[in-house]
Each structure stands twice: as C-alpha cells, then as structure tokens.
Amino acid sequence: MLDPAVLKELKRILGADGVSTTPEELVAYSYDATQREALPWAVARPQTVAQVSQVLAFANRERFPVVPRGAGTGMSGGSVPTQGGVVLSFERMNRILEIDEENMIAVAEPGVVTGDLQREVESRGLFYPPDPASHRFCTLGGNVAECAGGLRAVKYGVTKDYVLGLEVVLPTGEIITTGARTAKSVAGYDLTKLIVGSEGTLGVVTKIIVKLLPLPESVLTLSAFFRSVDDAARAASKVLASRIIPRALELIDQAALRAVENYLKEDLSQGAAAMLIVEVDGPAETTERESARVADILTKAGATRVQSADAGPEREQLWKARRSISPALYTIKPKKINEDIVVPRSRIADILREINDIAKHYDLLIVNFGHAGDGNIHTNIMLDDVDLPKAGEAVKKIFAAVLRLGGSITGEHGIGISKAPYLPMELSPDALSAMKRIKQALDPNNILNPGKIFLNAE
Questions:
Q1: Which of 19, 170, 260, 301 lies 20 to 30 angstroms, CA to CA, from 186?
Q2: Average pLDDT of the chain?
Q3: Global model pTM greater than 0.90
C-alpha cells in the first residue's frame, strides 16, 4: 500500500490530476499484452522531465518501486508492476517536438504513438522504418525500452538503429543526455545503446532523437501460397539467397492462416498450408524488377499461387490480415504462450521442423508466423489451463533447439518477467554478472522496474 505521506508528495510534484489511486485506474495499468497482472499502488502521469526527475529522486530516497509504462503493448511483462509501487505513465508526454527535414531527424517525447510519427514524417517525404505490429497504438518510449523490431527489420533494422540520442532520467534523479543529433559520435561510452533495450530498468527516457530516411518512391507487395510450411520456409531462404533484400518477408503457417481467415471472415489462402508476404521498395524501376524476380523465385520454389497486391486497399487488407494474427489466435484457445525466437535465416525450416516435433511430443497446438526475413519467428503455444505444465516443458525444449541452431530466445519482445527464468540458458554466468553490476551502479536501491530481466537482481 502507498503511504499517505508518499501520495501527498507525489501530488505535490505532479499536481492532483497527475496521480490516481482509484481501483479502476489501478486495474487498467496492472497488465500488458501477456495478460499477467499485478496492481500498482498508484499511477503517476508526468508532463515534464523535471517532474520525472523529482519522482525518481523521491522514490530513491523512500525506496519504493517505479515502473515506466508506454501503451502496455509489451509481450514479456516488462511494464507489469510485479512488486507494486508507482506506474509512471507517459501518456501526457506525447508531443513530436521537432522534425528537421534538412538533417532528417525527429525529436519526440516518449508517449508519441509510433504510427503517428510515421504518418507525420511521411507527409513530408521522410520515413521512420521501425514497424512493430502494434504501431497504431504502441509508443516510442516503449519501443526504445524494448528495442522494438517489426515487419521491416529485415531491410531497415530495429529501433536501436534509428535512435541517435536520448534524454534520460537516472533512477537516482539525475537528468543526462546521450548521443547526439549527428550521424556520428564516439564521445565516451555509448550510453544510448545501453539504454535502448534495457526494458526500463536503467533509466527513464524522456526525449528521443531518431534519424529518418527518404520515403521510398515505390512499394510492391506479393503474396505466395504453399502446400507446406517447409516449402514456404525454403522459398523464403531462396529469396534472401538471391541477394534481394525485401522490405518485409513474412511467413504464416496453416493454423495461423485458418485463424485469421475465421477472424476476418475472408478466404485469403484458398486452403493453402502456408503463406509468404514479400514486399520490396525503392525506385519504381527497381521495385518492378525485384518484384518480378521474387515472383519467379517463389514459383520455382514451389508456390502454388503468387499474386501482387495493388498499392491501395488490396495491400492494406493483406497487411491487416498479417497484423490480425495475434488477436485471431484467441479464437482457437483461450490462452497462449507467445515466444519470439530467432535463428539464422538459413535455419528457419530446421527450427520449424523441431517445433513441429515438440508439438507432437507434448500433444500441443503450436502456431508459427513472423519475420522470416530476419529469422524471427513468433511461436505461439495455444492452451487451456490444463496444458500449462507441459507447455512450460515445451518452451524449454524450443529454446534449447533455438540455441543449438545458433539463435536467441528473444528477437524483439525482451526478457521482462516471462523469459527471465530462461535467460541463463543463453547467457553465461559472467555475462549475467556484468549486467547485474551495471544495474547496481545505475540503480543502487533497485527502485526502477525491479524484478525484470534477472530473477535475482538485488
């Protein structure tokens, strides 16, 4: 419970309307997309970096937990207040502060919705490539905390590749800036890269400087259908081996196809067992040539049907189907464990076969879809409550197979609480110890998002 004196001081810092303790508000900020829940003691909504600094300095003195939160779309429990404390929500720090068209950078507060920034810069002929599936409602601050990826990562990279600099409040209240507004800076340690992907455990981001690119002149999208997911995985590898780097290369297996078709009430695949979505961009002449090459590669690799999507509604409908997979899966079973494994791109077919064997062994339905272009597959174990024990064993087997193939247990969702028990499978004791020492140095009283990433952070 929140001490009345603490609540009084928070209201002094943030104003009476900047702090809430109503039961409805506490429930609304108690969970993320994992559906794991833990009630905070209060919800704080700062409007300035000075307020964030005062809250953190106060929390450090009084030693109560502070959990930063964007839109709550995370898939690893990173914003769930597992130890209570105060949720620091950035919904009121939601301004695009600057778009510098000449130097192709943007400056924004953490509560800016990613899709809103994308639309604004695209209206000026510029391009912010990171493209999480939740881009219509996830925020830049959350993207930075998790180093979000998305559909276009195969060609353009992930959030860390676009963050040039940050304004950060440390857990002890100091305000620092990292990086620069320039394309290059090697002044000291790269604190920007340290903060990006740190899941809100090392500092609270209050301003973000991102680089922008010229908006591609042309975008062409293809869909291809296959008799088996193995055929689709091999076809994806052949596209990449051809030295074409698509803007997106997505794989959808049969169970995911059926789920989204039932969800949208549309027959996308005409009964196919797997689907690839391939998108290329660039100058119009280049995209026409590359699109034709990709279509030829997919046909020769065994696609039963390859079709192009028009730049307008047809293309939007195709991507709507892809982005609808996660909610559509709940029409199959009431619960799921969603993992975002990564393997070398040439091993996608291998890991899918191993996952299929694990599913059969444990008598589980495992649905696979995701970013075949960068080897990042979203593996969803569909379950009822009675399936939970064997699902946990299946996750361990999947992670072991991923690591054996040279991969990683998470590509873009982060560790949070859901993957913390498995992190030692990938990282050595010395590597984990080094990370914990960094946490201790920046957050000596462990007040900032405690209980995340490490099972024993203290």
A1: 170
A2: 96
A3: yes
